[in-house]
Amino acid sequence: MSNIKRSFWQKIHIDPLFCLFITLLLGYSLYILWSASGQSIDMMQKRVIQIVLGFFAMIVFAQFSPRTYEKWAPYLYVVCIIILLLVDIFGYTSKGAQRWLDLGVIRFQPSEIAKIAVPLMVAKFIHRDGCPPPLKTTVQTLAIIGVPSLLVAMQPDLGTAILIIMSGIFIIFLAGINWRFILFALILIAIFLPIMWFYLMHDYQRERVLTLFNPERDPNGTGYHILQSKTAIGSGGIWGKGWLQGTQSQLEFLPERHTDFIFSVIAEEFGFIGSIILLVLFLCLIIRGLIIASQAQTTFGRILSGGLILVFFVYVFINIGMVSGILPVVGVPLPLISYGGSSLVVLMASFGIMMSIHTHRYMLSKNI
Amino acid sequence: MVIILLVFVLLANLADLQILNFSYYSTKSNNNRIEIIPIPPSRGMIYDRNGTPLAINNITYQLNIVPDKTKNLNEQFEQLKKIVDLTDEDIENFQKERRNYRAHRPVPLKENLTDKQIARFIVDQHRFPFVSIVKIQHRYYPYGSSLTHILGYISKINSQDKQRLEEQNKASNYVATFNIGKMGIERYYEDVLHGTAGNEKVEVNSRGRIVRLLEQHPPQAGEDIYLSINLKLQLYIESLLAGRKASVVAIDPNNGEVLAMVSTPSYDSNDFVGGISSKKYKELLNDPSKPLFNRALLGAYPPASTVKPFISIAALSEGVVSPKSVINDPGWWQLPGTERRYRDWLKWGHGRVDVLRAIEESVDTYFYQVAYDMGIDRLNLWMKKFGYGERTGIDISPNEESRAVMPSREWKMKRHKKSWLQGDTIPVGIGQGYWTATPMQMVKALSIMINNGKTFTPHFLLYKKSDIINTNQNQPKIEPSKYVENNSLININPAYWALAKEGMHRVMFGSHGTARKVYADAKYQAAGKSGTAQVYGLKENETYNANHIPEHLRDHALFIAYAPYDKPKIALAIVLENGGGGSSNGGAVARKILDYYLEGDNSAELKDDSPNIGHED
């Protein structure tokens, strides 16, 4: 790896390989969206705008140095908490959940901001006290993670809440933690689960979990989504039914085909082969992300980029797992592929932060 | 490491779904999108012998709903109440009907929509995604009650029909059909009239809307059929019987074609199409004149003196009497060895009587003696050859035709748990006692006599549409031979037939003929026999149950007749319940019918028609 010459890519603080995989996945997303949207030109235009905004966010976030992020993390975190509180009070309700904040021009999901703010804050907090963090710091960190997660869960958006928790936990995990604590955490979760089941979860969420174990329980009701999605995937076979030829998606048997269930459209129309291609692209992106993390020179950079890329993987795993019926339907979109502006922009921003960590290595070392 | 492991979990699951269980999910996906919509065939029409339509298909509009796809069913009903005047009764019927339909199938909600209702619904259609208007063919009988007892009617397929169709492996042909023939011709020729259902294979989206047509198998319409009924004659006879409880059957003796079959009073079969209201049905059921009862096929009346020519044939053939043998009639006949006397209808007797005179003057004592000499066993055997006590085999379901009773020792033992007495035999000689017969049986027996023993099964079907198409000259292929029955009567000495017929001729034209007054000025020669049945009321048969006997005690008037005498074109049986004397009242009706048929404006049409149907003898 030659770092002597400062190439064009280095000047704009972008990792070309990482960016290539992102571009390929976004291309795939546009291709399948034409089919999944039912050939809607309007949605295609919006998607292109989302992608442009996403790239813009990535490039902008790549320009700040990691130190800036470390410095500003607490402010971002506080702003995030305030917005989440606002959403819980004034939010716009959609599908039984208060997730949106209407800003007049655009509506966006503030919970998405927490996906960046929380890992940043956690990384900064742990980094301050050195690694591995002492028990006291760990408990404080859990509180840092817990507050926004709870606010998001109250919206209620369990999927995002879980992802926010994950993003924080991964960072603690990457910072190094002793096994006794993990064991303790597991016991805590075991106690917390029934509490969550009975007091925190909404009826529709409980239904989702129940139908996961037996989708045939109510084929026209709650199990419908899972059954139709499994049918779409299964009927795709090895080679798929062909682009725009998926009967499950084109005839709208598949629910939310352009957002959460877009993977089912890919699996139906492009078959097992198309699914493998998608997974390989994701895997390449994740491996590149892990390499970036391993090359980071500060602990803050390492745990932050490692955490971000691991959360990205969790996204992918939960989404594909839920549409293919091995995880409950929790409403997690497939990153980079699903239609949706907020999550894409935030995701691209987090990629921007990773690139910033990667491309500012030498400047950082100069400063230290 | 963990990441790669988890990716493999995903891949393994995908492989399981997409490769191992591909065919399962593929079928499931096809079941989702492909729907097969059965299309009912249009029912064959029914025409009379001159091509006048008797049963046709009108188009009506029906509102259907897919209940299991509709949320808030009751809410939708409330809204529909305003738009299409949906009534609570409609909803009630719908709830009953609903069970008979498969899942995701439209269930009829309201029939016979008016143009206004349709217009209002179409404006608001978007509010009812699973409600649709379909065009259905509605059976209509233009002549209403005039032909009910012949045509019967079609009505909603009920669970019994369903079971029967299931057993006969016809259920799949009826998935889109609402109505099935329940009575009469509609029932008997159901298989001919119904046709073959077609279907459309369509692709539907998740909301059940049809996206495109994949395959189409058009239905094959049911066949049109032409009946031997002469509508004008039918309507004329009906007008003669207006207000009476009566029945007339007219057939062409040359081939057994039924020209008219009237049973009055009648009811409008149109009321039964698509289901009759229970109130209306109760009214019909409780009407003392029994309009639902088809007297021509189910009415079992004592045939009375109309049987005398047939008994004469039997007695002559058995050698019980000879053409020359004579008895003395003092006005009564005494059962040998007893004090019991049987009266003649003429108090002072007919004097010396031979067989010819016995028929002409309807001498009871002659036939008491004959019955006594023949014995019930021989009488039963012979009269069964003339079709008494047996179904005529007409093309109407056997459930709708009575055997009536030709009594025998076994019959009495079985029915009354008593052994046959000699005294029971005597009234059989004059067509009374335990003996009953339907008008159709009487006219069949008469036609056997006309044809010297050659027996045609009476029938309504003249030809089917395919019979025209399958022949070259655009003319239907009619095979009267199809309706010829084997009958040993054909071997009887022709002189006996001639004698019996001469007797019947004299009934109308002889110097002492019982009906001579009615036929005094007739322009054609005819033959006939009257009968006056003492009232037992309406002898009920097993299938139709009305428990009470009419209160009137007047006699039933009976008459059988045919004309022209030398070359018969029409044979009749007439029963006028409580109609009084057979020779005067029955004979008068017979005269009018024969006049109308042979001389009326109807005859011109008949001439045009005859080559077309080809019943030359």
TrEMBL record, chain A:
**Which of UniProt's keywords are assigned here?**
Cell inner membrane, Cell membrane, Cell shape, Cell wall biogenesis/degradation, Glycosyltransferase, Membrane, Peptidoglycan synthesis, Transferase, Transmembrane, Transmembrane helix
EC number(s) in its UniProt entry?
2.4.99.28
- UniProt record, GO biological process: cell division; cell wall organization; peptidoglycan biosynthetic process; regulation of cell shape
Q: Which GO terms describe its molecular function?
A: lipid-linked peptidoglycan transporter activity; peptidoglycan glycosyltransferase activity
Q: What membrane topology does the UniProt entry give?
A: Multi-pass membrane protein
User: Which stretches are transmembrane?
Assistant: 12-36, 48-65, 72-93, 158-175, 182-200, 270-291, 303-330, 336-357
Pathway as given in its UniProt record: Cell wall biogenesis; peptidoglycan biosynthesis
Question: Catalytic activity annotated for this protein?
Answer: [GlcNAc-(1->4)-Mur2Ac(oyl-L-Ala-gamma-D-Glu-L-Lys-D-Ala-D-Ala)](n)-di-trans,octa-cis-undecaprenyl diphosphate + beta-D-GlcNAc-(1->4)-Mur2Ac(oyl-L-Ala-gamma-D-Glu-L-Lys-D-Ala-D-Ala)-di-trans,octa-cis-undecaprenyl diphosphate = [GlcNAc-(1->4)-Mur2Ac(oyl-L-Ala-gamma-D-Glu-L-Lys-D-Ala-D-Ala)](n+1)-di-trans,octa-cis-undecaprenyl diphosphate + di-trans,octa-cis-undecaprenyl diphosphate + H(+)
Principal subcellular localization:
membrane
Q: Name one GO cellular component term.
A: cell division site
Asked if the Swiss-Prot or TrEMBL record annotates the protein with the keyword Lipid metabolism, the reply is no
Where is this gene product found?
A: Cell inner membrane; Membrane
UniProt KW Transmembrane helix keyword:
yes
**Record InterPro entries:** Cell_cycle_FtsW-rel_CS, FtsW/RodA, RodA/MrdB
Q: Which Pfam families match?
A: FTSW_RODA_SPOVE
Q: What class of enzyme is it?
A: transferase
Q: Which domain of life is it from?
A: Bacteria
HAMAP family membership? PGT_RodA
Matching entries from PANTHER family are given as: CELL CYCLE PROTEIN, PEPTIDOGLYCAN GLYCOSYLTRANSFERASE MRDB
Family per similarity comment: Belongs to the SEDS family. MrdB/RodA subfamily.
Task: Give the protein's function.
Answer: Peptidoglycan polymerase that is essential for cell wall elongation.
Name of the protein in question: Peptidoglycan glycosyltransferase MrdB
Q: What gene name is listed for this protein?
A: mrdB
